[in-house]
Amino acid sequence: MASKTQLAVNKYKIRYTDYQKKDKNGKPLRTGFTFHGSSSEAEKERLEWEKMEKKMKQGFKFERTNREVTLATLYDWFFNGNAKPPVGLKWKNLKREKPIKPKTIENYECAFTNFCDAFGSNTPIENLDSTEYRMFFANRKLSGLNVDIRAMRSIINVAIEHKDRIVKEMPKELFMFTVTKNDPYYLEINQVREILNTPMDESTYDLFNIYLYTGCRLMGINTLTWDRVDFKKKTITVIEKADKKRTIFVPDNVIQILLKWSSRPKPTNISDRTIMKKMKKLSIASGVPFTCRILRSTCGSFMLSSGCSIEQVAEHLGHEDIQTTRRWYARLIKDQREAAMLKFSDFVSNMVQEPVSPYITARS
Q1: What range does the domain containing 287 cover?
Q2: Which of 155, 172, 242, 347 is 20 to 30 A from 358 in CA distance terms?
Q3: What pLDDT score does 182 carry?
Q4: CA distance 219 to 239
């Protein structure tokens, strides 16, 4: 019979007899897992396993999805298997164009540690729940928690796709999570004017203009080297997310700033943190809240407003999927469509001053 033992507040050990498996003595295997939840929830879980026990005892064989795969089992398979390097990690590396970065592997291990803290290392994979995970780490930032959840999903996907297939399917409660996002924010023309009219040093002014006109991410400009700057063609080649390159055209004022910096070993000679501090200081002084990320969004909005196509904006900003650009600038695109229809209506009205139906003429 399934049992429930309290380990701590809202933490229980659920044990049951698995009649589909035998221990070393040939008897049905007594096993269990750690359950996180209230006493009533734990009791409900216990009753479910008690029903399952009775069915298995009567010969019923249920489809084993992730019941026998715990966090500890998955960790051992992915990181510490007998194969060197481990099975899952090795296979994931082989499936990629470039090896997984050490920082990414560190994020994977960190996610495992945090999930074990939240649910217990003996928790079956199918019991993982993103909502409960966020509640357990209520004091952490949502963005950090989502990094852990995405890392865990990536590892589970490896286990699903691998020939071993130690995990049969993605836990629905881990996969189906939503994050409330605020409406996209970008600066208006008058806000940019306010910022540019704010007293600032030359370095801050140059950085503000470069990020505004290029629409690059923070690292895109700060990792720029002179061999990727073409003064004749007025282009720069930036390397940003996933080490992907893209070449963009830049206006004359950006070229002038780069020429002014040409005596430096590299265009920017300060750290990411220093750039962010300069932008934050300018934001406070001007009274207009913005970051380098918002300047990137503003660049796209200004391009659309000046008549650039959605495809040109997507290419300039480095969006792999044009739908990303459409979603981000949906409000602007809608306004443009309304304005275009008004222009179309005015154009037709001006062409046909006194529209007369041919049917009316024929009847007359």
Answers
A1: 189-340
A2: 347
A3: 58
A4: 8
Global model pTM greater than 0.70 = no
One domain, residues 328 and 272: yes
Query: Do residues 4 and 50 lie in contact, with contact meaning Cβ atoms separated by under 8 Å?
Result: no
Distance CA 279, CA 268 (A): 15
Q: Please list the alpha-helical segments (H only) found in the chain.
A: 39-57, 71-78, 87-94, 102-119, 130-136, 142-161, 172-175, 189-196, 202-214, 218-222, 252-260, 272-286, 292-305, 310-317, 322-328, 330-351, 358-363
Is the peptide bond between 85 and the residue preceding it cis, with omega within 30 degrees of 0? yes
**The predicted structure's pLDDT at residue 109:** 92
Q: What contacts 24+ positions apart, CB below 8 Å, involve 77-80?
A: 77/159, 77/164, 77/166, 78/108, 78/155, 78/158, 78/159, 79/108, 79/109, 79/112
- Report residue 234: phi and psi, to 5°: 60, 50
Same domain membership, residue 325 and residue 193: yes
Residue 363, in any domain of the structure: no
Low-confidence residues of the chain, pLDDT below 70? 33-34, 36, 61-68, 81-86, 175-184, 242, 335-364
> 201 and 329: one domain?
yes
Residues 317 and 303: their CA atoms lie apart, in Å, by 10
pLDDT of 364: 47
Residue 162 falls inside a structural domain: yes
Residues 150 and 261 in one domain: no
Tell me, yes or no, whether 46 lies in a domain.
yes
Q: Are residues 154 and 220 in the same domain?
A: no
Residue 252 included in any domain: yes
| Cα 317 from Cα 184, distance rounded (Å) | 15
My answer on whether 43 and 75 are in the same domain is: no
3-state secondary structure at position 116 = helix
